[in-house]
Amino acid sequence: MTRRTLRRLLGRATLYAAAAALTAFAGFPFYWMLVTAFKQNRDLYVGASDLRHVPWVFNQSPTLDHVRLLLHGTEFPHWILNTLLIVAVVIAVTVALAVPAGYSLARLAGRWGERLGIAIFLTYLIPPTLLFIPFSRLVSLLGLQNSWGSLILIYPTLTIPFCTWLVMGFMRSVPWDIEEQAMIDGYSRLAVILKVVPRLIVPGILSVVVFAFTLVMQEFVYALTFISSVEKMTVSLGVPIALVRGDVYHWGALMAAALVTSVPIAIVYNLFLDRFIESFTMGAVKG
Amino acid sequence: MASVEIRNLRKKFGSVWAVDGVDLTIRDGEFLVLLGPSGCGKTTLLRSIAGLERPSAGEILIGGQRVDEDVPPRHRGIAMVFQSYALYPHRTVFENIAFPLRAAHAPRRNIEEKVRWAAGVFGISAYLDRYPRQLSGGERQRVALCRALVRDPKVLLLDEPLANLDAKLRNTARDELKRFQRQIGTTTVYVTHDQIEAMGLGDRVAIMDRGKVRQLGTPQRVYEDPDDTFVATFVGQPPMNLLRLCDGAGPPGTLLGFRPEHFLPRAVLRAAEDARSFRFHVRRVEYLGSDRYLYGTLPDQCDPSPTFIAKLPATIGTPVLEGEAYEFAVPVRALCYFDSTSGLRRRG
Amino acid sequence: MTRREPADPPASAQPALLARGTLADRGELLGGLMLAPALAYVALLAGIPFLLAIALSFSDATAGSLRFGWAGLRNYAAILSDPVFRRALWNTIVVTVGSQALVIVLATAAAQVFRASFPGKRVARFVLLLPWAVPVSLAAIAWEWIFDSTFSVINWTLKAAGLLHGWLYWLGEPTLALLAVIIVQAWRIFPFATVIVLAGLTSIPQEILEAATVDGAGFWRRLFQIELPLLLPVTSVAVLFGTVYTATDLGVVYVLTGGGPANSTHVLPTLAFQRGILGADLGQGAAIAVFLLPLLLVVAILMLRLARHTEVGVR
Ligand SMILES: Nc1ncnc2c1ncn2[C@@H]1O[C@H](COP(=O)(O)OP(=O)(O)OP(=O)(O)O)[C@@H](O)[C@H]1O
Ligand SMILES: [Mg+2]
């Protein structure tokens, strides 16, 4: 074996080792969720000082008990429904406001478009943890405490800035010529916007829907601040806060809940990843 | 049909003047070509006529009516073909061509009739049910032209419509385009940076550089009688030779210009021909079949370093060897004089 | 310019009039109308609360009543002399800096790995991105279980490997708890940073790297002298976002430790929540949260700079 092939082999091995290590670090909590969710309690609750019992694998046959408990013995199904309802409304509001705004910034606002766009994007950086206190004032003024109304009102402030930016970036990547051609062929601006643009902008809208979906699914701070009764909670709030029976953590059910919620979000998010990344880097690193 | 008149048009992008004071009159029924290097403002000028760009200053008149302020593109009576053709990807060829008619609320029967007629003229009747992505570049270009012409525009604007075609197709398309234009007689403004297209197509050619029109005239006039050194060197392949004179033959700061094809061995010219002779030291000979290009210097001139080019057609068989010097000459009627500072032509 | 064309015929005397534009042709007007609702929403529901947050920090407002009295700097004086607040401020800095340092290392390494192609890369990439897509609170609860005082799988593994002889009470001891928070924050942010760096990596023209290879640069020289400098702007974007996400995050600490033991692991957001919402002292809560502002300001300014420079930097 020559030195070059040896070096290449070594390089390959390092690559695999690094890939495996990084993937393991990222994926380990999910593996742990999976194992915990299906282990029998006898297998689960063995102190870690007992070195003869290997916690990484199923020592006894897997069980669906925890999943059953989650679906029938807790409010989890309710939370899913609550979340989906809120998500639907927030997506509708976001699409209705952010899509026209993004289009306008990309196509109609001219010199001001760039600056306004960046200004709107920067509001995305104002974190919920700075705003939840004034919002709590606002929410009690409006009498929306402990209601979905508060979340539906507030979540669009999270989604609109980024989604406007997203649509703007998307429209910038679409050539103008089709719209201009339609204007020459006899459409007014308004007619172009109403009849030609919708077709062009569909992928942009899709990524807005996905982004708003994931953002609302992930939100914790506002839900924690404004929702107090268990049956009105969202998934990301209810699971860590209210899935505790008395003082006992049902880890199996908890992990099952975490797993079934996060994996679909991750899958959807992955589909649109490239578009999001392009927006995060402010369009600076297009290939 | 209509004339287009442009008066002192200016358009600024950021801090650049993309169009910087253009005066231009396009006559009724004329085929005018805007020719110039990349970035000289041709597209911007064309888009201003179309109403897609709002001029910073100046006026645009179509058919004698001022349009630059508040006549939107759809009311200007223009049609435009983009370089990309901008076909609506989700509509069939038929629907693409019918689009301007539908937008104008033309009666249904009329639409059908007109589309079929126009498709016939352009030879694309067989493709009416296809989608743009199912067409070749040349077919798309014809669909775009067809769509531009169905509603009888007063002015047809074309922005490098042949740029996306391969060389062979471009030749036939150019020929067809000229035929159609003659046939329908619509006032046409055609943008290109390809001088062969410009010379072959235009009734007149406007040569642009850095936002300004440097010369406007028939292809022949622009080629044979350039107004300044920019036009002289931009039009023609290889470009006109420019020689700095310092032997006191003309006023100080004079450039002498002559086309490579007029720069011939003295012996080839008739003896009686009034010609100016140069000793031409040939460095390199390029054999191109129909022509020979000779690259060399003029050692007897005050600045012997610049390279000059002579273009000998195959009909001139005079043997020429690399590294030798010969007596070459230019007929006096083919000489142009320019001012070396302003670049402008000196006449008389 | 000399024009020696024959004079043009005068335009026909009475041209047919071309129609003028209507409101539907006015691009700026339509643009304004389309932008206004979003702008109004954001201004009303992010801009005003933002100002209100600052105003509240100077007031003695409580959640119980709608009274709103001027308190001057009293809230600030109170929190600045409060050791719990100072600890929280310090923790915020430690967690943010610590986790972002980890993120830079992990993301740079991961980007190098994931630009190569290897079998199973698609699956690996999906797994790598899971932490970024999963809701923070659910991730935190999973980590709480991982760090559990009795059942911690980490402890078992360390012991089984012979590396640990005593016992680690991950969430029960301030230093370890902070370490746990740093690990979780880094775990959550680095996939995101990786994809951004990866995007930057693919935008470096391949020829530059090939030229460097031809010039005799090995892997490490290429990495440190060419790629990393070229990647600096993109990496900064990732780190700036990471900084905001970490410093302003409430979920991880709230779920993992709840600020305990004995208020030793609070960060600014959790303390603001405890005082402002649970303790109903809106004024003090707001004052604590306002300490996030200088950080956000710096980030925003750096972002604006980068937005201007990256285009040149990366291309
Ligand atoms: N929308 C715009 N914003 C800023 N600058 C522009 C814009 N459009 C054109 N320009 C600039 O104006 C100048 C003229 O551009 P234009 O597109 O008219 O050139 P062109 O002659 O058509 O060139 P080409 O032959 O390459 O198409 C260029 O310098 C260009 O960079
Ligand atoms: Mg152009």
Automatic annotation (TrEMBL), chain A:
Ranges where the ABC transmembrane type-1 domain occurs: 80-272
One Pfam family matching this protein: BPD_transp_1
InterPro entries assigned to the protein according to its UniProt record, in alphabetical order: BP-dep_ABC_trans_perm, MetI-like, MetI-like_sf
Coiled coil start-end: none
S-adenosyl-L-methionine among keywords: no
CC per GO annotation: plasma membrane
Its membrane topology: Multi-pass membrane protein
Name this polypeptide is given: Carbohydrate ABC transporter permease
Transmembrane annotation, as ranges: 12-34, 79-104, 116-136, 148-171, 192-214, 251-272
Species this protein is from: Eiseniibacteriota bacterium
PROSITE patterns listed in its UniProt record: ABC_TM1
SUPFAM superfamilies: MetI-like
Family: Belongs to the binding-protein-dependent transport system permease family.
From TrEMBL, chain B:
Keyword Translocase carried by entry: yes
Domain of life where this protein originates: Bacteria
Keywords: ATP-binding, Cell membrane, Membrane, Nucleotide-binding, Translocase, Transport
Boundaries of every ABC transporter domain copy: 4-235
Cellular component terms per the entry's GO annotation: ATP-binding cassette (ABC) transporter complex, substrate-binding subunit-containing
Keyword Flavoprotein on entry: no
GO molecular function, one term: ATP hydrolysis activity
Gene Ontology BP terms: carbohydrate transport
InterPro entries linked: AAA+_ATPase, ABC_transporter-like_ATP-bd, ABC_transporter-like_CS, ABC_transpr_MalK-like, ABC_transpr_MalK/UgpC-like, Mo/tungstate-bd_C_term_dom, NA-bd_OB-fold, P-loop_NTPase
Residues annotated as signal peptide: none
Protein's name in the database: ABC transporter ATP-binding protein
Species of origin: Eiseniibacteriota bacterium
